[in-house]
Amino acid sequence: MSLISQRVALARNGANDKVICRMPSGWAVMGDVQFLPGYCLLLPDPVVPSLNDLDAEARAAYLLDMGRLGDAVLQATDALRMNYEILGNSEPELHCHLFPRYASEPQEKRKMPAWFYDWKNAVPYAEDVHGQLRIRIAHLLNAVNP
User: Which residue among 3, 43, 76, 92 has the highest number of C-beta atoms inside a 10 angstrom radius?
Assistant: First the structure.
């Protein structure tokens, strides 16, 4: 089972501690690392190989949820903008990375993709450190049970 499928299965079972909330198209979750505070992902449910595998209605719902999640992260942080990335090369199932970008980022990183950060040594997500941000994003999405 792929990483995306595993994370969706954990979310369905209430066992994914990074879940922000259930959205119409899937699950909003915090990223495993938080080098950019508020980094999160949108995981589709059901899991599909790519955006192109969704019918028009499901595709519209996924893209709308992606924008709504980005709006909430912007409101919950002091980010200047959001970067949205749907790649699927390493994990060949649909998922969108949402990266808030900040004026406080080092100059050499500010205009580069987030992939240029040191992911291996990045601050891991921890509920006691990042949980309040996760909850704030959930409330902004009007989640019933953040």
Answer: 43
**Which superfamily is assigned to 3-140 in CATH?**
HIT-like (3.30.428.10)
Residues 6+ positions from 146 with CB-CB distance below 8 Å = 20, 21, 134, 135, 138, 139
What lies within 8 Å, CB to CB, of 26 at 6+ separation is 8, 42, 43, 44, 45, 62, 65
Q: What is the pLDDT of residues 52-66, one digit of tens each?
A: 999 999 999 999 999
Q: Which amino acid is at 22?
A: R
Mean pLDDT of 39-53: 98
Query: Would you state the structure tokens that stand for residue 131, as one six-digit string?
Result: 């949980």
